[in-house]
């Protein structure tokens, strides 16, 4: 059995090349698919382990001397990036922000155009790690159309000063009222109606706000005070 290689193209991008008989532990497409199947079957820990094992194998293959920027148009490359980002999210959700940030930075190094919108998650990690200079370097790369940008800016300032900036709060209330209502609500029920809506092709803003809350809830438990301050305003 052989292992895949990263091969440069004429455009100074890289593609991953799989040999005809790829060792199963280096078949990143298969590992990603297996991890998704495990999640659907409720085997979350196994899914996380599959992704992390794949990431460790992937790191072993990266050339030390070259900057690897993957060609997004190649499907196999997309699977590599999704595997990296997926493992980063696994670490993010259990509060291992150092590892999560490292994997997200690696994802962005290989995908500078950020097709998977990894920058938003990395910004959360930087605030959690109190890396405010790094946060300031990337927060403007997040589009103003995302409510996460306002949440991140308010949370960063709150962590540093214990005060939510009035201007950002006004902007958040005015431009993202559904998200403000969700983040200041007393309950965040995961109902069948919500699950059906969020899995639909065009989920409602209310379901998107609930999803964002659920994705970040562990932060507000680990770093208490911010949500309570938001509710008091």
Please give the structural blueprint.
Elements: E1 5-8, E2 14-17, H1 28-40, H2 44-61, H3 75-93, H4 97-110, H5 118-128, H6 132-138, H7 147-161, H8 166-175, H9 177-183, H10 192-198, H11 205-222, H12 226-231
Antiparallel strand pairs: 1-2
Helix pairs in contact: 1-2, 1-3, 2-3, 3-4, 4-5, 5-6, 5-7, 7-8, 8-9, 9-11, 10-11
Description:
This protein is mostly helical and 233 residues long. Helix content is 62%, strand content 3%. The protein contains 12 helices and 2 strands, in the order E-E-H-H-H-H-H-H-H-H-H-H-H-H. The protein has a two-stranded antiparallel ribbon with strand order 1-2. A hairpin with a 5-residue loop joins strand 1 (5-8) and strand 2. The termini are far apart. 31% of the residues are buried. The model has no long low-confidence stretch (mean pLDDT 93).
Any key phrases for this structure?
233 residues; single chain; 62% helix; mainly alpha; two-stranded antiparallel ribbon; 2 strands
Shape verdict: globular
Oligomer: single chain
Enumerate how many helices there are, as a single number. 12
Work out the radius of gyration. 19 Å
Q: What summary fits the major beta sheet?
A: 2 strands, antiparallel
By secondary-structure content and strand pairing, the structural class works out as mainly alpha
Order of helices and strands: EEHHHHHHHHHHHH
pLDDT averaged over residues: 93
Instruction: Strand order, main sheet: write it out.
Output: 1-2
The parts where pLDDT drops under 50 for at least 5 residues are none
User: What distance separates the N and C termini?
Assistant: 61 Å
Helix content: 55-70%
Total DSSP E strands: 2
**Percent of residues in beta strands?**
under 5%
């Amino acid at each position: 059995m052989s292992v895949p290689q990263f091969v440069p193209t004429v455009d100074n991008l890289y593609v991953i090349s799989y040999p005809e008989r790829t060792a199963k532990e280096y078949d990143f497409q298969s590992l990603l698919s297996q991890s998704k199947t495990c999640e659907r079957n409720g085997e979350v820990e196994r899914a996380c382990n599959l992704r992390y094992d794949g990431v460790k194998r992937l790191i072993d293959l990266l050339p030390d001397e070259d900057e690897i920027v993957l060609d997004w148009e190649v499907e196999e490359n997309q699977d590599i990036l999704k595997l990296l980002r997926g493992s980063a999210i696994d670490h993010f959700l259990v509060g291992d922000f150092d590892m999560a940030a490292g994997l997200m930075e690696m994802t962005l190094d290989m995908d500078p155009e950020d097709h998977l919108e990894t920058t938003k998650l990395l910004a959360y990690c930087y605030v959690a790690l109190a890396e405010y200079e790094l946060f300031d370097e990337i927060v403007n790369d997040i589009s103003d159309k995302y409510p996460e940008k306002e949440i991140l800016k308010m949370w960063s300032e709150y962590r540093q000063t214990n005060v939510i900036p009035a201007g950002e709060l006004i902007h958040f209330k005015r431009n993202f009222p559904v998200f403000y209502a969700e983040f200041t609500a007393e309950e965040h029920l995961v109902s069948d109606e919500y699950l059906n809506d969020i899995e639909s092709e065009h989920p409602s803003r209310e379901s998107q706000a609930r999803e964002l809350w659920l994705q970040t809830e562990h932060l507000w438990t680990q770093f208490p005070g911010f949500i309570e301050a938001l509710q008091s305003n």
